[in-house]
Automatic annotation (TrEMBL):
The name this protein goes by in its record: Anti-anti-sigma factor
The STAS domain, residue ranges: 1-91
PROSITE patterns from the UniProt entry: STAS
Database matches in SUPFAM superfamilies: SpoIIaa-like
Pfam families: STAS
Length: 119
């Protein structure tokens, strides 16, 4: 799931779940919306990303590249070392500013189903 929020200067993309081949159908529409908003700063919140493959990395790279071409910046917030490694292997880590100070809010733990003991 990808949500887009905006302020006067910033677009924030909040990504939850997998950012991979299975999600790629929604990438062009999201990229078009983000580029169309024309904000100088794009913040990509990855706190709730569970998995990213090269398809997801290519999506993030395309967003950062589009922003850079119009003089903007792209910040990755909450990306874990595995995600940063994928971007580094793609040779694209320098397209992003990494927010190393951000601390993700802990996602609430899923509640365990109530145990049912026949009596």
């Amino acid at each position: 799931m990808i949500e887009i929020a905006t302020s006067s200067t910033t677009t924030t993309l909040v990504i939850a779940g997998d950012l991979d081949l299975a999600e790629r159908d929604q990438f062009p529409e999201i990229a078009t919306r983000v580029v169309g908003l024309r904000r100088q700063l794009l913040v990509i919140d990855m706190c709730r990303v569970t998995f990213m493959d090269s398809t997801g990395a290519a999506f993030l790279i395309s967003l950062a590249d589009a922003g850079r071409k119009r003089g903007g910046a792209t910040v990755l917030r909450g990306a874990d070392e595995r995600d940063l490694f994928v971007l580094e292997v793609c040779g694209a880590l320098d397209l992003f500013r990494i927010d190393r100070d951000h601390r993700c809010e802990s996602a609430p733990a899923p509640s365990a189903p109530a145990s049912h003991h026949p009596g």
